[in-house]
Structure to design on (347 residues):
């Protein structure tokens, strides 16, 4: 019989509130069976809500749990059946860590779901000794649990890619996220950097060419990063570029001026005129971005009303696209929808 200190240690390891370990056995080299029972002597009758301590009979059954180190863990649970002293009805005590009629714990189910979302059903089943049917049941049950909870403090609802041609109308605000604006500006800035590099590569003087190539080397991220996030090395790189390619630095400074507009605490009206001035002043550096800003000026300016961005929605969209790419040949839309929902909940 194991010592009390060892059983206390195992109780803390399995960590089921109200339950304690009473014994353990090594079934095989990598299987550990732990016997557990409820510490509480009383139970509440679900029929009349009275407490009773009269045990009618005990049912012991095996439940799979998450592994401990290299051992697969099986729990031998003593689930007692009580008889109420008042209404005389028989009932079984509830187990918080395992669902009714299931042979695995809730936390094992959650572990399996996370593995399924990262890999696939077959491999997750092999690692956890579960059949695809069992895993499918787990996924459906957890999906149902997720759908029971509704957002209670919803303040803003973002919907991506809504156009009037697709029927989008009657929305509180239609806006172009500043992420897309800055992304296009950064693309044009990086195209300028590549153009400058190609010019340098055409220089016939080998020594001059190598010197200038060394100067423009590793300049992409210092040019694209926010100025307040530059480290000392990146700041030095920009100083070096200001002597080597002053026009490229002028393009970088124009990009930062646009960011300053978006980050300044100004009204939508002031932002409108500042954006117009920016497109006129720096059209020669950013022709495509300037045209985009002019074309979508009303939707871009809408950002300044409530400082609302579509960042969260864009992130969810990218996550869904990643799931779709990983789930090729997934023909059942219900399974795809389930994966999306559970990814949002668990990942």
């Amino acid at each position: 019989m194991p010592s009390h200190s060892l059983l206390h240690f195992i109780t803390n390891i399995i960590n089921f509130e109200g339950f304690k370990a009473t014994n353990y056995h090594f079934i095989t080299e990598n299987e550990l069976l732990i016997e557990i029972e409820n510490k509480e002597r009383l139970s509440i009758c679900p029929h009349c809500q009275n407490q009773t301590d009269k045990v009618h009979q005990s049912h012991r059954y095996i439940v799979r749990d998450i592994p401990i180190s290299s051992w697969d863990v099986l729990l031998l649970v003593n689930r007692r059946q009580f008889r109420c002293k008042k209404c005389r009805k028989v009932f079984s005590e509830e187990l918080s860590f395992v669902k009714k009629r299931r042979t695995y714990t809730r936390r094992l189910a959650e572990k399996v779901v996370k593995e399924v979302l990262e890999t696939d059903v077959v491999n997750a089943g092999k690692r956890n000794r579960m059949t695809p049917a069992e895993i499918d049941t787990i996924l459906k049950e957890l999906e149902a649990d997720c759908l029971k909870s509704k957002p209670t403090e919803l303040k803003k609802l973002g919907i991506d890619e809504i156009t009037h041609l697709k029927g989008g109308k009657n929305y509180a605000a239609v806006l172009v996220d500043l992420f897309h604006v800055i992304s296009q500006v950064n693309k044009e800035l990086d195209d300028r950097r590549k153009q400058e590099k190609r010019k340098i590569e055409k220089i016939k003087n080998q020594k001059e060419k190598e010197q200038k190539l060394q100067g423009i080397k590793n300049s992409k991220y210092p040019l694209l990063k926010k100025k307040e996030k530059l480290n000392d090395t990146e700041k030095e790189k920009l100083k070096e570029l200001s002597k080597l390619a002053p026009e490229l630095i002028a393009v970088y400074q124009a990009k930062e001026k646009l960011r300053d507009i978006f980050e300044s605490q100004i009204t939508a009206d002031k932002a409108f005129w500042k954006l117009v001035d920016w497109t006129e002043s720096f059209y020669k550096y950013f022709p495509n971005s300037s045209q985009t800003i002019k074309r979508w000026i009303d939707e871009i300016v809408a950002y300044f009303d409530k400082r609302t961005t579509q960042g969260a929605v864009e992130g969810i969209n990218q996550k869904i696209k990643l799931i779709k790419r990983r789930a090729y040949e997934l023909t059942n839309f219900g399974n795809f929808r389930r994966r999306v929902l559970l990814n949002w909940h668990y990942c």
